[in-house]
Amino acid sequence: MERHRMLKESQIMKIHYITGIAALFVVAVHILMRLIVPFDSSLEYDYIISNYKNIFYVFILESILVLISIHGFNGIRIILLELRQNNAWENMITIMTISATIALIAYGTRTIILANGL
Amino acid sequence: MKELEHDSRNNLEGLKGWLNPSRYGWERISYWFQRITGVFLLIYFIGHVYETSTIVNGQNAWESFLELTQTVWGHLFLIMVIGASTFHSANGIRLIFTHVGIGLGTPGRPDYPYNPSSLNYRQKSGIWIALILSAAAMYYGFTVLFGE
């Protein structure tokens, strides 16, 4: 039976590495935003809301959300495919991880949009 | 391209093989850590996305949720996150280098005791560097979270 895939595993692995390295940079900016003021102050409501109103920082947060969701759930997919291989299992894991990725990105994006409007 | 397909390939040991500590030495420990820290960080990330979503319910909801995390155990958990993310990143960079052929050494004739040239001191140093960096990051996190 001929099997059609949207992406080869080698291409998915490149996406995994690229999202991982890109996440390092944006997470570094996210952590720096917590450290440029005293740690306790960085968690105050008004400071967090001001972060969500900063367009540059919103872009960083959305990037973190997308990059880590893709990287994280693809990592889970890789682990689960290492444990067992057959078509039904592989298809199920792929569908579940893509769905979870989309759900997490949607939920996080909702927070960013709503907090930006507060 | 046509591929040979089988319904099931029972040629792997599954979780038993994954957990077997008796083979591959430090590389197997690094393999475990990379996966364990990855799963742990994904669970933390999902929790963090949920935690930060409470801010849309107003200041009271944000502050009451924050109280749950601003405890000694909450800080110790954050230090674990710092250590796990540092190890996962540093070891991940080592794995990317390895995947593109950097640090594997040159292929040689397999002689007794058949130590693979790819599992060399460069790889082991990479694992140790990842462990040392994560310990240093955890120490820094400790000074920030408990230093006040």
Reconstruct the topology from this structure:
The complex is a heterodimer of chains A (118) and B (148).
Chain A (H helix, E strand, L loop, with lengths): L8 H27 L3 H4 L2 H9 L1 H29 L3 H30 L2
Helix pairs in contact in A: 1-4, 3-5, 4-5
Chain B lengths: L13 H6 L6 H28 L5 H11 L2 H28 L21 H26 L2
Helix pairs in contact in B: 2-4, 4-5
Q: Please, could you describe this protein's structure?
A:
The complex is a heterodimer of chains A (118) and B (148). Chain A has helices at residues 9-35, 39-42, 45-53, 55-83, 87-116. With 118 residues, chain A is an all-alpha fold. Chain A has a single domain, classed as Up-down Bundle (3 helical TM bundles of succinate and fumarate reductases), CATH 1.20.1300. The N and C termini of chain A lie far apart (54 Å). Chain B has a single domain (25-102, 115-146), classed as 3 helical TM bundles of succinate and fumarate reductases, CATH 1.20.1300. Chain B has helices spanning 14-19, 26-53, 59-69, 72-99, 121-146. Chain B is elongated and about 70 Å long. Chain A binds chain B through residues 1-3, 13, 17, 20-21, 24, 27, 35, 38-40, 43, 45, 48-49, 52, 65, 68-69, 72-73, 75-76, 79, 82-87, 104, 107-108, 110-111, 114-115, 118, and chain B through 2-3, 5-9, 12, 14-15, 18, 35, 38-39, 41-42, 45-46, 49-50, 52-53, 55-56, 59, 62-63, 66, 70, 85, 89, 92-93, 96, 99, 144-145, 148.
CA-atom Rg of chain B in angstroms = 21 Å
SS class of chain A: mainly alpha
Q: What count of domains describes the coordinates of chain B?
A: 1
Here the CATH topology of chain A equals 3 helical TM bundles of succinate and fumarate reductases
Elements of chain A, N to C (H/E): HHHHH
Task: Write a short abstract of this structure.
By secondary structure, chain A is mainly alpha-helical. Chain A contains five helices and no strands. Chain A has a single domain (9-116), classed as 3 helical TM bundles of succinate and fumarate reductases, CATH 1.20.1300.
